[in-house]
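hiii, so i know i said id send this last week but things got crazy w the move. better late than never?? heres the sequnce for the chain we talked about at the cafe, plus the structure i predicted for it. fair warning i was half asleep when i ran it
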Amino acid sequence: MTWTDELFDRVAAQIPCGYHPSGPAASEPTALAALALSAAGRSAAAQAPLQKALDWLAAHQAAEGNIGATDDPTSPGWPTGWAILAALAAKANRGEAKPQASSSGFDVPRAVNWLLQTAGEGMPRTSDVGHDSSLVGWPWVAGTHSWVEPTAISVLALKAAGQGNHPRTREAVFLLTDRLLTGGGCNYGNTLVLGQELRPHVQPTGLALLALAGEPNRDGRVGRSLDYLLATLSAEATAASLSYGLLGLAAHHRLPPAAPQWLQAAYRRTIARDAAAYPLALIALASLGERSPLIARAGRYF
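okay and structure toks below
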């Protein structure tokens, strides 16, 4: 058994997943695990954990279409994009055409409609804010500013659902490009504070680049962001940062040759610590490289 076989077995055994082995199940890690298992090429008998994850997501979908961060449907709905991606990837894995709702019972159109009706708070642009604060994406919590990560997740989901040309998606793509720092990479949402450009971070940079795959960029910030990831990632990076960074690079066909060794090192550290499903699911997704269901191929989204 290879380390990746062992990895996918560990992910499957923990569904529905939480952020910590002793913690409650949560939407993001469960959806990420479903995404990984949907593309793992495992036997039919091993599909039961995938269906279990999809059923859990469907059972926790609110009437409005969103899914909360926890099993409380009133909690912030930013993981809705992950659930959409998981449901669509599972259908693609089964060779199904795009039905109006997934076979798991998760209602994709209703979830997409919720995303399109949900937005961060825009503000008039001012000279003391480095980014264009009038652009609207998605927030972590309703009624707050748009941030990089929930916006990137939502863009990925809307593109997968065939809404890549929707005005909301297009504006969010502009937002993500605008939030890239001049030197490459991005912070979690801001670019300047008190006239000082902020430092980039790997995780939001990787997610932003995933969402920006296939998008034109004429000012070079996408290329510099890829260079930032290549210069920053190593076997010592944390599991989440490493996984998102490598996924961002793979989406632009820049995956470094050492990626499998780095991911194996992150896997060994994770199982030595607590074998939590959340980082394991991310490592599993990153181990698929350009086969990851998070990466669009030739302009096609599932």
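btw DSSP finds twelve helices and two strands in the chain. thought thatd interest u
miss u guys!!
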